[in-house]
Amino acid sequence: MNGLMDWLRALKYALGSVQVQILLALTFSQIGIATVFYHWIEQWSWIDAFYFSVITIATVGYGDFSPKTDAGKLFTVFYILLGIGLFVTATATLASQFLAAAKEEIRRKRDRGE
What we know:
This protein is mainly alpha-helical. The chain is built from four helices and no strands. It has a single domain, classed as Helix Hairpins. It has helices at residues 3-15, 18-41, 46-57, 70-112. The model has no long low-confidence stretch (mean pLDDT 88).
């Protein structure tokens, strides 16, 4: 694939997949629920709660935040166990759809003689 336009077409194709849409919706919903939880239970700002939710589900874990309450710690255990699988599945499915679109674009260009 050449250029930004090819990349954007492949991304549009990937995001058009119902499976990708559902997985991304579930992932963002889970991040949203965790953000609300950490804001209320750990008394973190909205930005800090969102930041922690994203870096935790993405397995980055900088270590600059950690739950202090028992409820926060227990929630985090289940959030990680459920969230990592969902996040990885969503990311892998998006990448798979993106690659399928890229291969299709290469095939079309080859068939047109480009």
